[in-house]
Amino acid sequence: MAYITLNVKKLRANYVYLNNLFLKKNIQWSVVTKMLCGNKIFLTELLKFDIPQICDSRVSNLKMIKSINPKIETIYIKPPAKRAIPNIVKYADISMNTEFETIKLLSNEAIKQNKTHKIIIMIELGELREGVMGDHFIDFYESVFKLKNIKVVGIGANLSCLYGVLPNHDKLIQLSLYEQLIEAKFNKHIPYVSGGSSVTIPLIFQKLLPKGINHFRVGETLFLGTDIYNNTKFKKMHSNVFSLFCEIIELTEKPIVPMGEMGTNVEGETFEFDQNDIGETSYRAIIDIGLLDVETDHLELVDKSLDLTGASSDMIVIDLHENKKNYKVGDLIEFKLDYMGILRIINSKYIDKKIINNN
Fold first, then answer.
1. Is the CB of residue 28 less than 8 Å from the CB of residue 61?
2. Domain named Alanine racemase N-terminal: which ranges (predicted)?
3. Residue pLDDT, tens place only, 164-177
4. In sequence order, what are the residues at sequence separation of 6 or more whose Cβ sits closer than 8 angstroms to the Cβ of residue 79?
5. What is residue 269's three-state secondary structure?
């Protein structure tokens, strides 16, 4: 059976590296765990790092996190759905919000649960995903400050996730100025200016991060060592915390060119083949994973002598060519994964999850 592994030693090294970086800059940061899809095995290992604050976009994931460590502070990082309000107040200490009517419902629910629910109000900085427009944010904050059992603890922004709008010094200065305006006008202390994410980290090294940005939400860079801003990897971080292993379930020498009238495959794709390859053969392996689990664009073969030639719903075909390494049925094929690949694989109930702990 196919399985994905998490290397605890490499993940811990990435965490220590980022934690030291943020400590030097007096920045508080929160680990975004949505990539782990609420998986108890992986979350349990992560929470051993003594992380003070966790972000996630699924209430069920926050529930799992609280079951492992009830004392950890949790943040729900997308505008809450009305039907989820009771559980958000129950399992999220903080939520990110953009709709006043939703915050009113959070207030009412917090009163019912005898809690003070904290919120970060998200501001639109050009990415056109979630965020209150700049023309309205003063009136928005004024209305929210009047609500009972609601405590505003931050102002935030999201960049790069939808259209790829990159953070820069000017945009983050704008966010900092919004925070200063709110504090001055309403005589309120706003602890978090949450303008940082994985894509913002390079601005620290370039000394372009405004001092007012004091809170980061980081997931991808922690788990993959990714420099998202420059589409590369940080040299001092591990990019192979996760590995995928798939078992060969058939290995046969077969023709290179399919035989018969050609139509479309399960994804509606059509194929053309070089007629010069008619009569040629190669060794083809089938592995026990398919499009139900992950799209092949998110997979990278570790063995560069192999080629991924096609996939159906629950099987992928690998071309071994002459099979010089003498692969056989039962052997494992290893893959590297990108962010979306890991997300899909961990979310698949058909893929085993395993820990590599080589401390």
1. no
2. 7-225
3. 788 889 999 999 99
4. 96, 97, 98, 99, 102, 122, 130
5. coil
Helix extents (H) in the chain:
8-24, 40-46, 59-68, 85-91, 100-112, 137-145, 169-186, 201-205, 220-224, 339-347
Q: Mean pLDDT check: name the lowest of 203-212, 232-241, 243-252, 277-286.
A: 277-286
For residue 170, being part of any structural domain is answered with yes
Give residues with Cβ within 8 angstroms of 32, minimum separation 6. Answer: 54, 55, 56, 77, 197, 217, 218, 219, 220, 222
Known catalytic membership, residue 34? yes
Two structure tokens written together for 215: 């809170």
Which tens digit of pLDDT belongs to each residue from 177-202? 999 999 999 999 999 999 999 999 99
| 237 inside domain | no
Query: What is the C-alpha separation between 64 and 315, in angstroms, rounded?
Result: 31
Q: State the chain's mean pLDDT as an integer.
A: 93
Same domain, 225 and 265: no
Catalytic residue among 9, 10, 24, 34: 34
Cα–Cα distance measured from residue 72 to residue 54, given in angstroms and rounded to the nearest whole number: 7
